[in-house]
């Protein structure tokens, strides 16, 4: 009888020890799961915040685009009003041309020549990259000789 009680005591002790080891293992393994769950929750919150910020940014940019469009429209309207007023009230032809946005074919002051758009090519067949640019030919030199500089 004494022998059978020891078997039951050992069985119960083994069961309790297994239960303790299992609980300890579950706690240690689930600690990472809880951390992962908190990380997932923070990630979800961050994604939600990012999507809200994108929505606010889109609203802000569309409002800014509308304001820029309004400013451009008002600027053009102001230019037209100034041109009309200059036509009616001013007697200065330069001011009228500048505000009206129109230029005469030929300016008497040479403004058209001064404000001509620069070109990346030269008139004629010899440009600034030709070998004889800036050289003067002497009538006494032969064609095979190099020309003389200024």
Give a verbal description of the structure.
The chain is mostly helical and 150 residues long. Helices cover 67% and strands 3% of the residues. The chain contains three helices and two strands. Strands 1-2 form a two-stranded antiparallel ribbon. The radius of gyration is 45 Å and the shape is elongated. Residues 102-108 have low confidence and may be disordered.
Low-confidence blocks of residues: 102-108
Helix proportion of residues, in percent? 55-70%
Overall geometry comes to elongated
Topology, number of strands: 2
Main beta-sheet strand count, sense and barrel state: 2 strands, antiparallel
User: What multimeric state do the chains show?
Assistant: single chain
By helix and strand content, what is the structural category?
Answer: mainly alpha
**Secondary structure tally, helices:** 3
Strand order of the largest sheet: 1-2
Rg on CA atoms, Å: 45 Å
First and last CA, distance: 134 Å
Rounded mean pLDDT is 78
Strand and helix layout:
Elements: H1 2-89, H2 93-100, H3 111-114, E1 135-136, E2 148-149
Protein traits:
150 residues; mainly alpha; 3 helices; 67% helix; elongated
Summarize the structure.
With 150 residues, this protein is an all-alpha fold.
């Amino acid at each position: 009888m004494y022998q059978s009680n020891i078997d039951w005591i050992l069985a119960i002790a083994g069961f309790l020890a297994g239960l303790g080891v299992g609980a300890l293992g579950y706690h240690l393994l689930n600690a990472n799961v809880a951390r992962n769950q908190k990380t997932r929750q923070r990630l979800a919150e961050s994604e939600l915040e990012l999507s809200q910020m994108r929505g606010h940014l889109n609203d802000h940019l569309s409002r800014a685009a509308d304001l820029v469009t309004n400013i451009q429209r008002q600027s053009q309207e102001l230019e037209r009003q100034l041109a009309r007023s200059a036509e009616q009230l001013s007697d200065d032809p330069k001011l009228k041309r500048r505000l009206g946005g129109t230029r005469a074919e030929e300016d008497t002051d040479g403004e058209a020549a001064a404000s001509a758009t620069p070109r990346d090519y030269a008139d004629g067949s010899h440009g600034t990259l030709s070998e004889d640019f800036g050289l003067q030919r002497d009538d006494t030199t032969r064609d095979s000789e190099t020309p003389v500089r200024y």
